[in-house]
Amino acid sequence: MTTDRDLSVQRWLYLSAGAVVLAIIIGGITRLTNSGLSITEWRPVSGVLPPMNGAEWRDAYQRYLTIPEAQTVHRGITLPQFQRLFAWEWVHRLLARVVGLILALPYFVLLAGGRIRTGYRLRLLLLPVLAAAQGVMGWYMVKSGLAVRVDVSAYRLTAHLALALVIYLIALWTALDLRPTAADAPAAPPRLRHAFFCGAALTFVTLLSGGFVAGLDGGKVYNTFPLMGGQIVPPGYRTFASWWQNAFENPVAAQFHHRLLAITTAVVLLLLARAAGRTPELTRLREAAWLMVVVVFVQVALGITTLLMAVPVPLGVMHQLTGVGVLTAVVVAAHRARGKGTGTESRLARPALVA
Predict the structure, then answer these.
(1) CA-to-CA distance for 93 and 30, rounded, in angstroms?
(2) What is the pTM of this model?
(3) Mean pLDDT, the chain, as a whole number?
């Protein structure tokens, strides 16, 4: 039964989840515009304010000119051009601070007011803890591109994305836990329930593979579909002797793997929706599953269009946002598959997952 105290916590969690998604969007814009290295210092408090006069702008500009990116990717950049890059990164960092406050302050206020259920206190404590860790990870990522590299490490970029998604999922799942559920809402059969959780895990991995594509600029190679360079396995797929280094540092391999994972994820989610649709008693699950199908089709169309157009910023950001939408849809479906509470078992007949 949902109480007034649960409603307060739920509103905070939805606000937190929305704030994290907004930060992911701005972070995507920052990456796609190559703005992420424009601020070369980490000043958690004083960095809230941008340069306030000409002297401060010239100082920030001169510091930027010393890093490899300014001497290669943005060679010849002018002060006005630098200011545009700086603006995106400053907004991203400012928003990250706001998100951190949203994740932390209400938690302690709600905890002090006795509004957080005992069983959720430790789980929700992860939100302020991970928010602090995300700030450190963000600077660790930026730092990787200030000395030798001309961009940030794809490993650190993907870790930064993964941490944001984990925070988002904790907030989303707990908010769903606190929603009122009909007392007779049945759980899906164990097989189907577990399959939805596997689908959510596969979707998460696919999003992280997209992080490597972004970090390696893999979306700028082989802008064709369905083949890459006229072949299924593209030329240049194997350039490193080590398989793991090739998988995570070769942009051609990163894009190829992302394609395979995306297609596999789409097929799996469609099969899950079909399986859910074969059990009429699972009304709420079927509704969530078919909404998931709609989002999957939108994401596939966006992904192909983004690739064919060589990742223009608006489409790239939309593709990232819809990817989070797919993850959200499958997580909601997985949560509904549990029925009323975590221990509920269903006596419904097991539907086949594959025709």
Answers:
(1) 10
(2) 0.93
(3) 92
